[in-house]
Design brief:
Blueprint: H1 2-6, H2 8-29, H3 31-56, H4 60-70, H5 75-82, H6 86-100, H7 105-114
Length: 118
Amino acid sequence: MAMKVFGEKQDKNRVARTDYARKVLIEMIGKDEFLRLREVLMQQSENVNNGKWQYRNLEKMEQKVFKLIARGFTLNEIAELLDLTKSKVDSSKKLIYEKLNFMDRSDLMLFATKNNLV
């Protein structure tokens, strides 16, 4: 959006700032560490894209439960909202955790935030 507002000049400035930041970072931490750090960040970026794909592979009901859990609703509240039993919501939650390899609610909330799902 900034490029639309400021035009091509903004894009050239961005490239120059990026190049400068890269040079400063390499001077500070060394080229090997810079390359390692870049690889880690690229992997995290791939994981985010992977996350949306994983979410889309959930069943529709699991997606609804996922979003409500991510928004902070309790299992009882979700059951009431979706007109389900608490045990059905709990089993959906367990399947979500298993499919997405979550340990707890904080993993789910972090995943949802990183993938813009809430």
